[in-house]
Specification:
single chain; 419 residues; mainly alpha; 0% strand; elongated
Length: 419
């Protein structure tokens, strides 16, 4: 019986052992699955939090960027309005200056006719003419020169008038008017030494600056700069047909041809990969961070505003408005320096032209002919005193009483009429 019981209990214990192991394995599997589910839920929650934070940060950045772009747009609109107002004022001034120039041209034509008449009268005069008449002619010519300097700043016409006065004095050959001739010569030397403003050259440089403002690349790529860059690339890169013909070489054959083709393909692929890698990164230093936030439309308006400033500077040059000239060119220099890509040759040339024009004066202080006018007044007084002495000399030599000569009301007018 004992043997039988032992033999019957042995299989029972052996069958219980796999069942408990199976239950333990299933419980471990369930715990593992539960832990995996919990870990997955935790990861999903963390991922949702990270995505929510990223979306919030991106939304905030988008709002800031939109506010900044709106502010730049308002500033650009205000700048365009101010530029239009300045252009309207400049056009009004141009019209006023044109009217004044027309009046000056008519006055100049009348003056030229008077100068011709005076020249003819001068040729008819002889050395025995009156000094007062000669001084009146000289005074008229010097006054014309003074008017040309004060009204229109025309140095050339003033020099012509003074040269006419100088030639008239030289033909008259009056030793008593040597001081007057020296004064006129000194005024002529000062006028000839004046540096004139080359308006056509300055205007051409402004036109060149305006062209560069339209084609020079900005810090942010835009349509105008890319089109200009493509045109320049097409113009600078020679076509294979234009390359000089090289002596014909025998084409490789067999495995050499295959190796040469493989080597050429490898070089082309490496070149393309290097170009793509270089275009991925662009490191530069920018003082104005807003320059990198402009859209293509804003870049186009920005170029138009700068061109309008160049036109305003050209109008200021024609009207000799120094303050407007320097202000516009200073704004252009600052805008080019901050918003254009200085690695491009066109940008550097535009900045150089703007700075050189800013340092170029458009109004030059002109000398006057006050010395000649003062010398004419002194010579006229001396000539008048001389003629009075010549008129009084016959009365003193006649031996008559002084009283009738003084009381005679006819003597002085008769002498004056003779003059």
């Amino acid at each position: 019986m004992t043997d039988t019981d032992n033999s019957s209990s042995a299989p029972t214990s052996e069958s219980a052992t796999p069942a408990s192991a199976l239950a333990t394995a299933q419980a471990g599997t369930r715990r593992t699955q539960s832990a995996g589910i919990v870990l997955a839920v935790v990861l999903l929650v963390l991922l949702a939090l990270i995505l929510g934070g990223a979306l919030y940060y991106q939304n905030r950045q988008y709002r800031d960027l939109r506010a900044d772009l709106q502010r730049q747009h308002e500033q650009s609109v205000q700048l365009v309005q101010e530029t239009h107002a300045q252009a309207d004022q400049a056009l009004t001034l141009v019209k006023e200056q044109a009217a004044r120039i027309a009046d000056l041209h008519s006055a100049l034509d009348a003056t030229s006719g008077q100068v011709r008449e005076l020249d003819q009268a001068l040729r008819m005069m002889t050395d025995s003419g009156s000094d007062l008449l000669l001084l009146n002619d000289i005074d008229h010519l010097v006054t014309i020169a003074q008017q040309q300097l004060s009204l229109g700043g025309n140095v050339a016409n003033a020099i012509i008038s003074l040269e006419a006065a100088q030639a008239q004095l030289a033909r008259a050959n009056r030793p008593g008017l040597a001081a007057l001739q020296q004064s006129i010569n000194g005024d002529l030397d000062r006028l000839r030494a004046v540096a004139t403003i080359d308006l056509p050259t300055l205007s051409a440089r402004i036109d060149r600056l305006s062209d560069l403002l339209g084609i020079a690349p900005l810090l942010v790529p835009d349509t105008a700069a890319s089109a200009a860059g493509q045109t320049a690339a097409v113009a600078s890169d020679p076509t294979p047909a234009a390359a000089p013909a090289s002596p014909a070489e025998p084409a490789p054959e067999g495995w050499r041809a295959v190796a040469a083709e493989a080597w050429q393909w490898t070089r082309d692929a490496a070149s393309l990969v290097s170009q793509d890698l270089r275009s991925l990164f662009d490191v530069r230093r920018v003082d104005d961070a807003a320059a990198l936030l402009m859209s293509p439309d804003q870049a186009l308006r920005f170029r138009e505003v700068l061109k309008q400033r160049a036109v305003t500077a050209q109008l200021a040059l024609m009207m000799h408005q120094t303050r407007i000239w320097q202000t516009e060119l200073e704004q252009l220099s600052r805008a080019i320096d901050q918003r254009y890509d200085m690695r491009a040759e066109s940008s550097r040339e535009a900045l150089k032209i703007a700075r050189e024009l800013h340092d170029t004066p458009i109004v030059i202080a002109l000398p006057t002919v006050d010395n000649s006018l003062a010398a004419i007044a002194a010579a006229r007084d001396a000539a008048a005193a001389e003629e009075e002495q010549d008129q009084d000399a016959p009365d003193d030599d006649s031996g008559q009483d002084a009283a009738p000569a003084v009381l005679s009301p006819v003597a002085a007018p008769a002498g004056a009429g003779a003059i």
